[in-house]
Amino acid sequence: HFTRELWIEQDDFQEIPPPKYFRLFPGNSVRLRYGYIVTCTGFDKDPVTGQITAVRCTYDPDTRGGNAQDNRKVKGTIHWVSVKHAIPIEVRLYDYLFAVERPMDVPPGGSFLDNLNPNSLEVIPNAYGEPCLADTKAEDKFQFERIGYFVRDPDNAGTKPVFNKTVGLRDTWAKIEKKITGQ
């Protein structure tokens, strides 16, 4: 459902984008997956934290399906969910359990437990998803676009469906960003 207010991934907007960033930034246009082409006209920031709280855009009603009739080139495509129709979900992102390739290689007096990755689990308790996710059952499998493959957890975290990442997708932008920052 395309509505006036949409949520996008936080990583899909940057106030000052680095080179080769084809997502949303002031003055740039992107395709909304299965939607329209939108152009960023501004954004709001929290005065205390500096965090972006809203991104303002205009949409081109002649671009349903993401194709411009005037043949303009739009490089980025982002996914979105309608604020009005989205349902609350919890997402659990799993990373490597160990921070090193060989966890049993420890100095004398150490333990393999010293090599645990403290960031092996990231829980996003206040995520939002498509309304159809409310009707899913434990062990149902999904691809969350550009993120990875997920399975519905039998744990409902109260009233919200919980989805566990099983396999991540290759993130081209993360690779480019690593080269730019040298990390």
UniProtKB/TrEMBL annotation:
Annotated Gene3D superfamilies: Ribosomal Protein L25, Chain P
GO terms under cellular component: cytosol
Organism superkingdom: Bacteria
Keyword flag Protein biosynthesis: yes
Residue ranges annotated for the Glutamyl/glutaminyl-tRNA synthetase class Ib anti-codon binding domain, each copy included: 2-60
Entries under SUPFAM superfamilies matching the protein: Ribosomal protein L25-like (SSF50715)
GO biological process: glutaminyl-tRNA aminoacylation
GO MF, one example: glutamine-tRNA ligase activity
Keyword Thylakoid appears in the UniProt entry: no
tRNA synthetases class I (E and Q) anti-codon binding domain residues: 77-153
Keywords annotated in UniProt: Ligase, Protein biosynthesis
InterPro entries reported in the protein's UniProt record: Gln/Glu-tRNA_Ligase, Glu/Gln-tRNA-synth_Ib_codon-bd, Rbsml_bL25/Gln-tRNA_synth_N, Ribosomal_bL25/Gln-tRNA_synth, tRNA-synt_1c_C2
Family matches, as Pfam families: tRNA-synt_1c_C, tRNA-synt_1c_C2
Protein name per the record: 50S ribosomal protein L25
Organism: Gracilinema caldarium
